Amino acid sequence: GAGVSQTPSNKVTEKGKYVELRCDPISGHTALYWYRQSLGQGPEFLIYFQGTGAADDSGLPNDRFFAVRPEGSVSTLKIQRTERGDSAVYLCASSLGGTRSYEQYFGPGTRLTVT
Amino acid sequence: DAKTTQPPSMDCAEGRAANLPCNHSTISGNEYVYWYRQIHSQGPQYIIHGLKNNETNEMASLIITEDRKSSTLILPHATLRDTAVYYCIVSGQVRGAQKLVFGQGTRLTINP
After folding, report:
1. SS3 for A85?
2. Integer Cα distance of B92 and B4 in angstroms
3. Closest alpha carbon to B36 in A18, A109, A93
4. How far apart are CA B37 and CA B49, in angstroms?
5. φ/ψ (deg, to 5) at B48
6. pLDDT tier for residue B94 given thresholds of 50, 70 and 90
7. CB B60 within 8 A of CB B82
């Protein structure tokens, strides 16, 4: 079956611009997560959704970052006024709820480069 | 979430068992041990998890010490495709979605 997909796979933008990164989770997965991964580091948690609501957004670094999941499926991570330090691979993952929530399925990521 | 400590890198010969250690001395009673791996340029992949009993699935075995302060992931017959960064993560209860706190992991290289 189809896995988690993320678009675009690569995004190059100029400092100060606005970007949107999209995540399509596995159908039926109620939980959705965003992580970002800098070169040579492990993924860093940003936010997770249970259904349409953000259940934990404690990892968002500042108010330039925002994410939505309006219909409980597709999610968009939005970054305003991008900075060079935002350059990273942004990973999305989804999981079933309840007793199967331990297994998160990750997408291939979006590589964001801010010039 | 409890912190984990892993060796930064390990090597293993193809066909041999790869044993990856993890220390998590501050683990609390309701925290599980999870293992994920990340093959180059891909997203992380779930391998296995456990609370206090040893666990085995089609990918690996997880051995957790009786005091739960450390664990070992065992890949019984390593292949070249097992070359990856392996992350040991300690996190809260399985029920309900949980954020994963990744450390630096162990870079495992399987040599022919």
Report:
1. helix
2. 14
3. A93
4. 12
5. -165, 160
6. very low
7. no
- Model confidence pLDDT, tens digit, residues A73-115: 999 999 999 999 999 999 999 998 766 677 899 999 999 999 9
> For the purposes of burial, counting CB atoms within 10 Å of the CB of A53, is it exposed (0-12), middle (13-18) or buried (19 or more)?
exposed
At CA A106, angle to CA A105 and CA A108, rounded to 5?
145
Contacts of B46 in chain A (CB under 8 A): 102-105
Instruction: Mark out chain A residues that contact chain B at CB-CB < 8 A.
Output: 4, 30-31, 33, 35, 41-45, 48, 50, 55-56, 58-59, 91, 93, 95, 97-99, 101-109
pLDDT of residue A107: 96
Average pLDDT, chain A: 93
Question: What's chain B look like in SS3?
Answer: CCCCECCCEEEEECCCCEEEEEECCCCCCCCEEEEEEECCCCCCEEEEEECCCCEECCCCEEEECCCCCEEEEEECCCCHHHCEEEEEEEECCCCCCCCCCCCCCEEEEEEC
* Bridge pairing between strands A110-114 and A10-13: parallel
Give the start-end residues of each E strand in A15-114.
Answer: 19-24, 31-37, 44-50, 53-56, 65-68, 75-79, 88-95, 105-106, 110-114
Backbone angles phi, psi at A92, to 5 degrees: -115, 145
Confidence tier at B1 by pLDDT (50, 70, 90) = low
Closest Cβ opposite residue A101 in set B43, B95, B101:
B95
The single residue listed with the structure tokens 């350059």 is A87
